[in-house]
Design a protein that fits this description.
The complex is a heterodimer of chains A (338) and B (289).
Chain A lengths: L1 H27 L5 H6 L5 H10 L6 H14 L12 H36 L4 H14 L3 H15 L13 H4 L9 H7 L3 H38 L2 H8 L4 H8 L1 H26 L8 H10 L3 H29 L2 H4 L1
Helix pairs in contact in A: 1-15, 5-6, 5-10, 5-13, 6-10, 7-10, 9-10, 10-13, 13-14, 13-15, 14-15
Chain B lengths: L5 H5 L4 H7 L1 H23 L31 H8 L3 H26 L1 H15 L3 H11 L4 H27 L3 H8 L4 H37 L11 H8 L8 H28 L8
């Protein structure tokens, strides 16, 4: 396990270095001149040259890549063109809102997907299985941005059931001011006991969380189903069955535990995928997270910000994969030997 | 595996009998075929030209004349959706073709020759695979001028490492089988071994993976178009149509609803087809990569 840990961490570091280099390449392939977009449309040639020098764009590529790398390590991720703030501090400001949204969606997806996958496996080939499988295919095939608009149309415009945008009703700031600790309104309202804002925050979370949950829900349901069916065929499950354990405990205890190991491995994947899906969904719901920051950066051709968000999510993804691999090796020591 | 019964596995194989057993796959195959036919025959099927703007007939609701209504420029939404079957699905096929052209030879080289070549190629794929596919495609497309070409390039460059990794595993296992070692000992050239033994034996999982990937790529293309990074007006692209309809959406629901359904149905069709093909051709493969 010790050697596995060292090797796995070393690989993760190597990959992060590669990720930084790749994001640098993306920033450099920009056909437009970053200095020109930085200086603005009315800048003189001299001003552009000054900006180019200030941004270090007049140095050679190897020098630039080394200084870019040093900057990333020191926390200097460049300055956003559209907010004129340091990219890393923008990201840190925006990340909590996205994490609140994605974690809510993941919890929602997992609490639904695991039972659904088990039901599907239990009655495999019969009606409940058919319905769940079709539902799962629909939810992985769903264009997130479209689902977001349709839900707004139905639940806000037509039924007036749920709010359309934002994190909570801004009018409540006058009547029930919220003390900010985490920048996640639902969490802040919960820890300060501000129930009025808490209710409002939850109702604002519902629609965007459903949209983000769609893909993880489908993926995990299918994964649980397939994994449980595989596991039911294993020798240890047959042995337990032969020993006369009830079908229920065979299914939910002895077959389920090993079946969940591969499921853990997709969690990092769907978490990262969901973070990227916020790019499409947050702007629609006016959610002040990383996704709407990224979408704004894309529409204002703000390369440092685009590259910064990309780098941030890639690093989160590498770390999530590392944690998942280590957890799996801890659950199943055979993995560390292979 | 998918039907949950052990009997299926040794029963008749072949796509025909599989279709009889796997109704969902049949539905998917039929729908995918229909979408291809719609794309091919769009000029015959569409009641109007996709870019024929009638300034007097803007934002009309669905009716007998315009089944899916008209858009902000007075273009027939149904006709644009039918022509749209030529845009995103075609981009997706092109992306997958390019990804295979780059990914497969690299995977074969890594798996067959091993050693330093293997290490270099696989560490590079590790870096690409450290990004969720949509993220890297987005970042690359965002720094390129918005066009269909940029989107194709951006997605293809994020997709090839999956095939390199898949094919490498196949090639590595094939190249250690006794008959390949025998061929090598008998002095058969590398090229011949690669083309006669390694490549053909790696094709089945590739076909399965590509068919499973069609809908993921279509969804990625639509997402990039929705963000304005792909096809530009007047191209009748589904993702772009949803994006353009967004501002009229509160009152003119048909502008967003119908193109979105087209994306959803296409993705569902290819997902069902891919799942079915996997069950038939490659029952041991795991669901998720």
């Amino acid at each position: 396990m010790g050697r596995y840990l060292v090797r796995r961490v070393a690989l993760a570091i190597l990959v992060v270095v590669g990720v930084v280099v790749l994001t640098f390449v993306i920033a450099r392939v920009v056909p437009g001149d970053p200095a020109v977009s930085w200086a603005g449309p009315h800048a003189s040639r001299e001003q552009i040259a000054n900006v180019r020098h200030e941004l270090g764009l007049d140095r050679s590529l190897p020098v630039q890549i080394v200084s870019y790398f040093g900057g990333v390590v020191r926390g200097d991720w460049g300055t956003s063109i559209h907010t004129h703030q340091p990219v890393l501090s923008d990201i840190m400001d925006r990340a909590p809102a996205s994490i609140e949204l994605v974690v809510t969606a993941m919890v929602f997806a997992l609490t639904l997907a695991i039972p659904l996958g088990l039901v599907s496996a239990r009655w495999s080939g019969r009606a409940p299985d058919g319905v769940i499988r079709i539902g799962a295919v629909l939810s992985v095939s769903m264009p997130a941005f479209w689902l977001a608009l349709i839900l707004q149309l139905v639940f806000f415009q037509r039924l007036h059931l749920l709010p359309v945008a934002g994190q909570y009703d801004p009018n409540l700031d006058y009547t029930h001011p919220l003390t900010q600790y985490t920048r996640m309104p639902a969490v802040d309202a919960l820890i300060t006991g501000n129930w009025v804002v808490f209710r409002s925050a939850l109702s604002h979370l519902v629609l965007p969380a459903i949209v983000i949950a769609s893909y993880p829900l489908g993926v995990v349901t299918r994964m649980v189903r397939a994994s449980e069916l595989d596991s039911l065929g294993e020798d240890h499950v047959r042995a337990v069955r032969a020993l006369g354990f009830s079908e229920r405990s065979v299914f939910a205890r002895f077959a389920l535990k090993p079946a969940l190991v591969p499921v853990v491995s997709v969690i990092a994947l769907v978490f990262a995928y969901s973070l990227v899906n916020t790019f499409l969904v947050e702007s629609i719901f006016d959610w002040p997270g990383l996704g709407s920051y990224a979408a704004d950066s894309i529409s204002s051709l703000d390369t440092p910000a685009i590259v910064g968000v990309t780098l941030f999510i890639a690093i989160v993804y590498v770390l999530a994969n590392l944690v998942v691999d280590l957890v799996q090796a801890w659950i199943d020591p055979r993995i560390a030997i292979a | 595996m998918m039907d949950g019964s052990v009997v299926d596995a040794d029963a008749r194989s072949g796509i025909g009998s599989a279709m009889r057993r796997n109704k969902l796959m049949t539905v998917g195959a039929a729908a995918a075929l229909m979408i291809s036919v719609i794309g091919l025959l769009a000029p015959l099927l569409a009641p109007y030209a996709p870019d024929a703007a009638l300034p007097t007939q803007t934002l009309l609701p669905p009716s007998a004349v315009h089944w899916f209504g008209t858009d902000q420029l007075g273009r027939d939404v149904l006709s644009r959706i039918l022509y749209g079957a030529r845009v995103s699905p075609m981009i997706a096929l092109l992306v997958l073709f390019l990804a295979c052209v780059v990914g497969v030879p690299l995977g074969i080289a890594a798996g067959y020759f091993r050693g330093a070549i293997d290490d270099v190629i696989m560490r590079i794929t590790d870096v690409f695979l450290a990004f969720p596919a949509l993220l890297l495609a987005l970042a690359i497309a965002a720094v390129l001028p918005p066009s269909i070409g940029s989107v194709t390039f951006a997605i293809a460059i994020t997709w090839w490492p999956w095939y390199t990794r898949l094919i490498r595993g196949q090639a590595a296992s094939v190249s250690r089988r006794p008959y390949v070692e025998g061929a090598r000992a008998a002095g058969v050239s590398h090229t011949r071994i690669l083309f006669r033994h390694v490549l053909p034996n790696s094709l089945t999982p590739l076909i399965v993976q590509v068919s499973l990937d069609v809908s993921a790529v279509i969804l990625t293309v639509s997402a990039l178009s929705f963000l304005g990074l792909g096809a530009q007006d007047p191209t009748p692209d589904w993702g772009l149509m949803v994006s353009q309809g967004q501002q009229y959406f509160q009152t003119q629901w048909w502008l967003v609803t119908f193109p979105g359904i087209a994306i959803l149905l296409t993705a569902v069709a290819f997902n069902l087809l891919g799942d079915g093909l996997r069950d038939v051709l490659d029952p041991r493969r795991v669901l998720i990569r």
